[in-house]
UniProtKB/TrEMBL annotation:
Source organism of the structure: Ornithinimicrobium ciconiae
Molecular function GO terms recorded: hydrolase activity, acting on carbon-nitrogen (but not peptide) bonds
Name the record gives this protein: Polysaccharide deacetylase family protein
Any one of the GO BP annotations: carbohydrate metabolic process
PROSITE patterns referenced in this protein's UniProt entry, alphabetically: NODB, PROKAR_LIPOPROTEIN
Residues making up the signal peptide according to the UniProt record: 1-27
Species classification: Bacteria, Bacillati, Actinomycetota, Actinomycetes, Micrococcales
Length: 593
């Protein structure tokens, strides 16, 4: 059952924790993407878990989750750029995607200069990066790092992709490169400067948006010694305040003391990289942010490429473990109250649990907690649901208008359970629809509607052809209708299909239910209201009436079809009518949660 989130009302809290936020890495060039903090990450287990964070209150109808991802780091950086930057940008900042040091300072510099951060390999401009630069038509390109990071041949190729020139900004080390980039992007100085370790990436990446929103450069230091170029650049910038990122395990007290000789020093840190990111968010960002970026804290490329987006999001980067939200992140999302949460990277970087949990916290509904198989049930409604209704959609035949329905559900935050047949889902038209469903695991879930849409009790039926159903409905045939469909549906969506199944034509009996339960399908989903939208003679007004009149009991399950003839016209009226009466339209799992 949906719980509700409270509105944040307190002032921004300053978090100045002296614990170390990370351990020191090995020498430059030998660090891996996955370095580790000294302590175990505390995971935010959410409203049903053991932590003490407040439960969520009623969500925002205008909220949305958007995943920005590509096949690799180069494509993900391009996806971020396409989301936030239009053609004709004044600059594009290009760094190597092979390692993080040269790029750590790129985000705040790009934000100051007004363009995105894109990646190349040391010797090649990837096709996705080239295509994005062609689209952007930047007035100039800033290449970050020396020829070991970005070769002369690559810089020369980049020179052909701008109306101006591709200029190189670099130094003898990562520290010198960051200082040179600061001097290039902030020629007139800065009132605030950020200082992070150059030995590892988490603190600098989490600090990128904070530096960007404060028009501040990101400079780097070793743990125990302030690099000469960094010191000289701090003196040139002449800041009033220097924000030190991480505890004394990242930047020593001696370095802090040296910096304090020419600026006020403020240290921001937490017990690990996740807590440091939260502390930065609480220190720098107020409430009601337009956007929040969510990146994995276990690798650097996605967060690095998104740093320049702060000009439009005006919000922080928060770090997930890749599979869960760290302790404190849910409450921070409440406080920030973003309109959009951008989840960076594909499911290999951040699993579907990340957008699902963010939606659960901030949205009006979510896809819900999938139940275990458990005992057999025939479910036609969910008693006890708090004025919730499931407008479920079968997908097994006609698909005209389906794209319009899906767009409406996504744009209006209508969480939905779909029951596709595998033949329909895997058709040329169906794959495009299933891809769109799969892109929103925070809003949608699937159940199983078999392979061929046969009447599993009496035989016959079938869609798109009845021929496969002209056989005896044996135990083997019935079970394969579910298991074969499951293989296809889960491969297409990345979502579990079991234990929900909807029998075609509503045809089921104890024998069929026992057979399908043996292969994990214990929840037979029926309905309490039928729109009959599969009938071409059914009007939009009839669909609306059959759904909303009389006022449906809480926990009602409505049967409709993704290819219903008048369903695209009826759906907005249904949603607006029910919401005006205080209903939440959501998934079966959310109602049962």
């Amino acid at each position: 059952m949906k719980t509700f989130r409270s509105l944040a009302t307190g002032a921004v809290a300053m978090a100045l924790v002296l614990a170390c936020s990370l351990t020191q890495g090995s020498a430059a060039g030998s660090l891996t993407d996955l370095d580790h903090d000294t302590g175990a990450t505390q995971v935010d287990t959410g409203p049903n878990g053991s932590d003490t964070e407040t439960a969520p209150l009623a969500g925002d109808l205008n909220f949305s989750v958007e995943r920005l991802a590509g096949a690799n780091r180069y494509a993900t950086a391009t996806a971020v750029s396409r989301e936030f930057f239009s053609p004709g940008v004044p600059v594009a900042v290009v760094a190597t995607g092979a390692n993080f040091p040269d790029g750590l300072a790129a985000g705040p510099a790009a934000d100051q200069l007004g363009g995105p951060v894109l990646f190349v390999t040391p010797t090649v401009v990837p096709a996705v990066t080239r295509a994005e630069l062609v689209r952007l038509k930047p007035q100039r390109i800033v290449v970050v790092g020396g020829t070991g990071a970005v070769s002369s041949a690559v810089r020369a190729e980049l020179d052909t992709l701008t109306a101006g020139a591709a200029i190189r900004v670099s130094g003898e080390s990562r520290y010198d490169t960051a200082a040179a980039l600061s001097a290039h992007a902030f020629p007139g100085g800065a009132t605030i400067a950020y200082l992070a370790t150059g030995s590892s990436f988490p603190d600098a990446l989490a600090g990128g948006p904070a530096a960007g929103v404060q028009s501040a450069p990101m400079l780097l230091t070793s743990r125990t010694r302030l690099n000469a170029a960094t010191r000289a650049e701090l003196l040139r910038l002449n800041p009033d305040r220097v924000m030190l990122l991480g505890g004394t395990g990242a930047i020593s007290a001696a370095v802090a003391q040296e910096v304090s000789q020419f600026a006020t020093v403020e240290r921001i840190s937490g017990s690990d990289r996740y807590a440091t990111a939260l502390a930065l968010s609480q220190r720098v960002f107020g409430t009601d942010r337009p956007g929040v970026l969510v990146a994995t804290g276990r690798s650097w490329p996605d967060a690095l490429s998104s740093g320049a987006a702060v000009a439009l999001t005006h919000g922080p980067i928060l770090l997930s473990t890749g599979t869960s939200l760290p302790l404190g992140m849910r409450s921070e999302l409440d406080r920030l109250s973003p309109t959009t949460a951008y989840v960076l990277g594909g499911s290999a970087a951040q699993s579907n649990e990340i957008p699902r949990e963010v939606q659960r916290r901030l949205g009006v509904c979510w896809s819900g907690t999938r139940p275990a198989a458990g005992s057999q049930q025939v479910i036609s409604s969910v008693p006890g649901a708090t004025k919730q209704l499931a407008f479920t959609l079968d997908m097994g035949g006609r698909l005209d208008g389906a794209d319009q329905i899906l767009d409406y559900l996504i744009d209006n935050q209508v969480c939905t359970t779909f029951f596709p047949t595998s033949l329909s889902a895997n058709s040329s038209e169906g794959r495009a629809l299933i891809t769109k469903i799969a892109a929103h695991p925070e809003l949608f879930e699937i159940g199983n509607h078999t392979v061929h849409h046969c009447d599993l009790v009496s035989g016959g039926g079938g869609s798109p052809s009845g021929a496969p159903c002209q056989v005896p409905m044996t135990r083997s045939f019935v079970q394969h209708e579910l298991t074969d469909a499951e293989t296809v549906l889960e491969a297409l969506t990345g979502m579990p299909a079991s234990p929900y199944w909807r029998p075609p034509y509503g045809a089921h009996n104890a024998t069929v239910r026992n057979w399908v339960a043996e292969v994990g399908y214990t929840k037979t989903i029926y309905w309490s209201r039928d729109t009959i939208d599969w009938d071409p003679n059914t009007t939009a007004a009839q669909i609306v009436s059959r759904t909303t009149v009389p006022a449906p009991p809480a926990g009602t399950i409505v049967l409709a079809h993704l290819g219903g003839y008048a369903t695209p016209q009826a759906l907005p009226t249904i949603v607006n009518t029910l919401r005006s009466q205080g209903y939440t339209l959501t998934t079966l799992s959310d109602m049962r949660d």
